[in-house]
User: Fold these one by one.
Assistant:
Number 1:
Amino acid sequence: MMQTSAVNKTSVKNRYTLSYIIDKYFLVFVSWPSMLIMLAVTAIPFIITIILSFTNYDLILEDWKFIGFNNFRELVKDPQLPKILSNTAYLVIGSTVLTTTFGLGLAVLMNSTVRGTRTIRSMYMLPIMTAPIVVAFTWRAMFNNDAGWINWILGLLHLPKPLWLGDPHLAMPAVLISDMWTGVAFQAILLLAGLMSVPIELKQAATTDGATNWQVFWHVTLPHIRPVLFVAILLRLIEAFRKFEGIQILTTGGPGIASTPLNLAIYDTGLYYDRVGYAASMGVLLIVIIALSVGLLFRFSPKQELGK
Amino acid sequence: MKNRRRLTEIFKSTVLIIGLIFVAIPFAWILLTAFKRPVDAASVPPVIFSPFTLDNFRALKSDEYIGSLINSVIITVLATTTTLFFGVPAGYAFARGKFKGRKFFGAFLLFSRMVPPVIYIIPLFLFFHKLNLIGTFSGLTLAYLTGLLPFTVWMSASYFQDIPTELEEAGRIDGCNRIQAFVLIALPLAMPGIISVGLLICIAAWSEYFIPMLLGGPTTSPATVGIVNFIGVDSINWGAMCAGALTLVIPVFILTLLAQRGLLSGLTAGAIKG
């Protein structure tokens, strides 16, 4: 309070001076440039995508016109759409569930071992910091039929050597395995930070009251890290929807469209087959799906996170 | 009881070690392949150790890869400084409360973090084509801001929120104006947080592939795009690719080990504070 009156006193005197204007509109001055850039590079393109979805815009053909909902009608009937959608669901659900489960397991292990936690943690940070393009082609080499290390090890163990990236049933699992390499590490680091914030007194109190380790985890630790768990799941979900290099370079979406999720299909349709309008309608579909998934996640999340 | 505890200890370490092996194998492959003779790089069955050679690094020199590496440095510096210049003050504004448009931009900030880049990139591609920005550093920097700027505003807001407003208020009583309060008081206090945000966006810009693949040109493409040129029509030059991968990965790893704490706080702050 004292501060406001002090400022007011000085500012009454120089209401029209430059420094008064700067003071009054300071937050606007510092925030709006950033916001205008974001409008230009994200909001406007987003609106343009929605507009394009109602046109037959094509990168090659010169003239274009509005065609109403024709793109969406075609999209609904597109014979490839069911496969693309099921790939998207497989990728998003698979990636989120697997990385979070294994990541939580790893985090609990790291949290409960006393020795070497910091060294181990910095090792797990390395996959997160590796450029996705490097991750993608490294796994492409790992999954190589003959020269790849995975089939080489399977061969040494006298196990069958699948075609992985050439097999329509194994292409998506291969994508998931490579995704787990960074994803599990990411979730583990995030959740470990959450676990380390649980006050040790709480756990000790529960143990003295006779709770088993499992009960302590379930009734003390887990409720405490629920907000972090929620954010970790949300981040992974968003990441899975936008996964690009890990598919385009690893499997090129194939064989056929066996590993093409919506994100890659939009890119292929719009910038490879030049059908920008149709790709935009797929983009609108993707946005709707993401909004629904995030909405669903928020519905099942504890109340106190909603405010944030 | 004691035996059981020992057993669980052994179990724990085994799982952690298996996890570390899973993490290490791809790195081991990159490292070994980068120093392999090109003939051994794709041999069947794989040759794990082959005579040590620097041929693959020589291949990098002849293949214009060095140029793309320099482009990577230029783009990373441009994108990081631009993002921090605009993003950090905006984060401060968000942390310090009321200004016109705060609610709208806040919602928009959340929203833009959820939308995949492919949604923005097609219209940006069309704009850039019209404005002759394709293949320019300024165009690339602008496009990089789509992802980096919301992240920076968001994260720096969370760091500024941790600084008690009383300090700035005290400064203003002593005669600071708001610019001075921001630059001389809030900014230095938030510096550790801003540095970790800066490191993270620096790494993100360095690793970016999707945007420059579409909007980069022959003279501006970074190393992430240049490295893909080693995938030929019918064969892949794995050796050169791995040598290139090392040039992309090693600087980041050194940074990670040097600034582990900062990076860790940057990675986790968003989740812990929400």
Number 2:
Amino acid sequence: MQSSKEREKLGRERLQRIMETCRSVEQRSLDPFVIDVTEDLKNIREYLPEWKLPDDLALDAETVNCLASVVRLQSEWVRHRSTTLYTDPFLLEEKLRKTAKEEIVGTFLHVWHPAVELEQISLHSIAEAMRYWQSLLPLNERWQQTRPEEVQTGSATKEELLRDRILCEKAFSEELENFWQTLKKKVAEKGNEGKIRYWDFVGAETYEETVQRAFMTSFLVTYGYATLEVRLLEEEIIIKPNGTPAPLTGKKQLVSIPIAVSVDDWAKWKRGELQ
Amino acid sequence: MSKRKGYYASKIKRATHMLFFKRHTKPGVKGWELHKTLGSDYPKVLKILDDYLKGLDLQVKTVFEEERHVEKPSLEQLDRARFLITLRGELTPKEAKMIGWRIDDLAGLSIAISYIISKKGQAPRKEVEDLLRDKLPGWKVGLNVDRYVRYGYLMQDENEQIYLDWRTRAEVDQKALVDLLLGMEAKPSE
């Protein structure tokens, strides 16, 4: 009587063998019918109850996948055999071996219609080339022109970096906290039941500012400072500020909600058309 | 000359320049290039050119992206296809020599193509070379297969499998080749 471990080892070896045969059929374009798919599937099914480890289950799935590829090849094989282009390779090989070279060439010339292609220089292209050559500077002159210019290094003040937006005035977390306070204030002023419509919050005087607010809002939601409610039927998105930042590691699965903030939408909101 | 005739005459000239003179590594032009230069009625221009070329024993050949011939192609399929000028009729063995093909090389090409067709369009290089070695000197076999690959008749992948390439699809009537080879009365080679 085989032990469970021995049986598992035997099963793994068998699955590996099946996979290798399938792959060699696929790579070397052998007759896919040399593989007895039914028998192999029976073997795979026989060993399936033995598999406990994920690696073994993955091996099992991979073997089934290889067999599926063989079934696809078998279907292609049958389809090819039913077409007019099908010829028995052995018959043709035999014929080719027995026929003289001259005769094969004679036959090939009946079915070969070679492509016509000309490579020719025209007067026009010679004239173009001469014009180009005349206007071309000698190499030593061209290289002189491409020599890189020397640039003196200098220093920049913090104000200059802030102006060029290389540095931010506040740290991002601080900015986010401030934005959270803004949201709470806005909800208190314009909101209803501690909530506010998305566009009523992110919408601003300019489009650039609106995009900036939408960007910050996405971080408020991601870091648990606020919650987003999507009402599919009403096609409405609501933001609700949280009293304290909610931890990100909850039991609920996190989802990404893409919200388009296009110029058209912003213009509609400005006109009061976006509900 | 009527206005309409003049319109097509100039387009036919443009199409002839594009199709006859080699512009890329591969001969011929893609449908979208003709579309861009000649306009959306380029299939009609090519049809007129093809009729004109009949008298010169040449033809405008369409090679579709997919291997199979398309009965009634859409403009999109034509845009993706390659168009080239090929011989309409047949070459004599003497003419074949004059365009740079030795009889051995041409026989080798014919054998390789027909063998690959019979093997469902794919065969290991070793098998093709073994078959060629039967009729060609051993040192020449590898060089010839490389040459067929370089010319675009055959294609080889990293597993040393050989397939038919675009040039065979463009220039060779595959079904007729196999039928003729099978129907030949075998005479022993000298």
